[in-house]
Specification:
alpha+beta, 5-stranded mixed sheet, Aminopeptidase
Length: 234
């Protein structure tokens, strides 16, 4: 890794909530939203899609992990948790529009009843692999697997992974399996993947492991504000 291209002492790994983010983290929250919306607007435009990012896909998230320096976004991801026991949940807009019936049949055949999505992998182009010597997309994805293991009870991670920028290949190196290949979402080629707890593969690249370890030890997990009335009568 090119240590001159990124100052490890100044970067942080912070996980903020999509809902009810505490006010003291509002600047990072707003910076993350603006970065995410601009990044995916550009992806859709470059791929000839007419859609724009749906703000609700940011605000509904359980976890929004961010690698950042102050309020400069370096890389980010979006994670939502879903129980799949009720048939109506498959009408939730993200699940319905990004995954097929074939995909969920295979998920069901694998006895998966709860999932964590991985969505909208976004890396600041200033910090691309050719500049740093390693992939921050790979780093934040591996950090996401650690978050999945330690902060959720979900059976599996599910995600569409872009093929045009080799995210699917990168994810498979980390233990993800292709369940339905060669799909298109917003004119973007993707594979539909899953990764159960037992599927996770530790990275072989020493520099990736080093940065993952540094950021994991520095992680800050921010919980959303509880707006419910304390001790409310049932």
């Amino acid at each position: 890794m090119n240590d001159e291209a990124i100052n490890l002492s100044k970067i942080s790994y912070t996980i903020i909530p999509g809902k009810n983010c505490p006010s003291e983290h509002s600047q990072l929250y707003d910076a993350a939203y603006n970065f995410w919306f601009h990044f995916w607007s550009q992806v859709y435009l470059e791929n000839g899609a007419t859609a724009k990012p749906n703000p609700d896909d940011f605000f509904r998230q359980d976890f929004i992990p961010i690698i950042h320096s102050d309020n400069t976004i370096i890389a980010m991801h979006l994670y939502s948790l879903f129980e799949l026991n009720c048939s109506s949940i498959f009408h939730q807009s993200y699940l319905e529009h990004n995954f097929s019936a074939e995909y969920f049949k295979i998920i069901n055949d694998n006895n998966i009843t709860s999932v964590m999505t991985m969505e909208s992998l976004s890396v600041n182009l200033i910090f691309r692999k050719s500049h740093l010597g390693l992939s921050l997309g790979k780093v934040i994805g591996i950090l996401g697997q650690k978050l999945f293991l330690t902060e959720t009870t979900c059976d599996s991670i599910i995600c569409p992974a872009r093929k045009d920028v080799k995210v699917s290949d990168m994810a498979q190196e980390a233990g993800f399996r292709v369940i339905v290949p060669n799909q298109y979402l917003h004119n973007t080629p993707v594979d539909l993947l899953m990764c159960k707890r037992s599927d996770i593969i530790e990275p072989k690249d020493f520099e990736v492991r080093r940065l993952v370890d540094i950021l994991w030890k520095k992680r800050t997990l921010i919980k959303g504000r509880n707006l419910k009335i304390a001790n409310a009568a049932a």
